[in-house]
Amino acid sequence: MADLDQRLLMLIDDEPAQSRLISALASREGWRTLIVRDAETAIATLGTRQGMQLSAIILDQWVPGDDACALISELKARRPALPILMLTASTSPLLAVEAMRAGATDYLVKPVAPDRLMHALRSATTREAPRDELAPLTEKMPSNPDFESMIGAAPNFRKALAVAAKAARGHAPVLIEGESGSGKEMLIRAMHAASPRSRMPLRIINIGGVPANSIESVLFGHEKGAFPGAFDRQIGALQHCDGATLALDEIDRLPESVQERLLEAVKKGDCRPIGARHSFRVDVRLIAASNLPLADLTDQGHFLPELLTALSPTKVLLPPLRERTGDIPALTRFFLARIGEQPGLRELGITDGALSLLAAYDWPGNVRQLQAVLFRAAVFCDGDALTSEDFPQLLNILGTGPSTAPQVPESAGVMLYTPDGNLRPLDEIEADVIRLAIGLYRGRMTEVARRLGIGRSTLYRKLSELGIDNAA
After folding, report:
1. Beta bridge partners of 32
2. What letter does residue 202 receive in the DSSP assignment?
3. pTM (global) more than 0.85
4. Which of 3, 25, 167, 433 has the most crowded Cβ, counting Cβ within 10 A?
5. Could you tell me if 83 and 53 are in contact, meaning their C-beta atoms sit under 8 angstroms apart?
6. In sequence order, what are the beta bridge partners of 271?
7. How confident is the model at residue 133 (pLDDT cuts 50, 70, 90)?
8. How far apart are the C-alpha atoms of 76 and 82, rounded to whole Å?
């Protein structure tokens, strides 16, 4: 990889405004941007001296249109190691599948947030890329916004859901804390669906995705002429959500200059647009979400203690995935079922060896990252079930060192969950365990009974009750 100050990005884009924006964002991280306007120029550029210095390509799907995947294949054939990111306005999973199969490294949906773009470039061009497992290509997949769709049986997770479900029935503010990707937005939607305001709109604003100098106007609105560039009156989110629910994601990134105003709005139940002489009464259900513990930020002097108190009559702590690894099998099967419903894909099983590999990883990107990893594996899987080999990045990270444990074939295992993430009936699981033991110990029923910890007579009784042929 080229040094940071020498990284060159080729942007295939014919929209001047978007080209300027992407170039400016990339320059913050030391990228130089070479802009080309069409596919023919892009292909020709690869063979030039400048083209040989490229570290990545961003392709706006609009330029080649329906031939975007063909262009990706052509670029990949000429430069196999060069990361290619496709930028598109389409939310179709089928296009994501086709782009990845053609060789795209990532898939960005417009309008793309600055942090999302920077993360995609860093992930694609650093040696740590396998750890990131790419940004979530599944972020636009539809989901059911209710508590039933929150998969997990870990006590800390179930406790968080219980607190959230109880708080959902009220009107007071709620603070949700949890690492990025742990499911905060999904929980927000579930709370809204279970709330008395479920028939009213829910608006979610990602504080980190709004420029710091614009967030006050986004929240409170402004009058025409209130500041340079305020050519029209704008209604703020607080006033817009009167009678409804407003969720502020990444509240930990709220500028300190705006925290006082938000505190006043929460305490008084009103808001005053920038440049306005009068305030407006508003009735807004406020849900805040933070990637970082706000108590730590208050101790460091970066977050107002009074605002923390006002936002957290109820606080929900979502645990990271590494603290509930027992939920990974159910989550995996749930996601695979959903992924299998997407155009161009099919429902897949997964071996116990692959599940063990997934459980051994610490998942810094949490549930969102797990879903993205499964999506990518499903795209390229040729068999009927995912195996460890379908997760080469994880194998590279975790290694495949020698183990003192007995080597069991990956196909040998017992599925505990149905494809929708629910537990299978106990008699079905018990029958599978007995079949597995019979096969593993080659029909030696005395050994089978001994390993299962039951008597031979009990074993034969169970064979009869469960309808199992002991030659199976």
Report:
1. 8
2. E
3. no
4. 167
5. no
6. 280
7. very low
8. 7
